[in-house]
Design goal:
Layout (H helix, E strand, L loop, with lengths): L1 E5 L2 E5 L6 E2 L17 E9 L3 E10 L31 E9 L1
Antiparallel strand pairs: 1-2, 2-3, 4-5, 5-6
Length: 101
């Protein structure tokens, strides 16, 4: 058995197998930032006899950026340190009318 010290993380490698003992420092690794832009617009129209009509347009995930998932922190996986998927989220547009009396 031999021991490596790499980037402040103590790794004990048992020769002849893939068994690794790591510290818990990988649990605090942060993934990429998430960009979600929601926008909305409201227009009020005056109607006779104290009635109002409100038109709303809401754009959810308006700019449609790709949000990447967290990176793989399993050191025995071949994909260690890489991002292999994207988070869901598609653009949605919602229109609405409200009559206020």
């Amino acid at each position: 058995m031999f021991i490596h010290l790499c980037l402040g993380v103590l790794i004990a490698v048992v020769s002849g197998s893939n068994l690794l003992t790591l510290s818990s420092r990988f649990s605090g690794v942060r993934g990429p930032a998430t960009d979600v832009w929601n926008m909305s617009g409201v227009k009020n129209f005056a109607l006779p006899e104290k009635l109002r009509l409100q038109f709303r347009a809401e754009f959810l995930h308006a700019l449609n950026y790709t949000n990447l998932a967290a990176l793989n922190t399993n050191p025995v996986n071949a994909a260690f340190g890489s991002i292999t998927s994207a988070l869901g989220g598609q653009r949605s547009i919602v229109f609405g009318l409200k009559l206020i009396y």
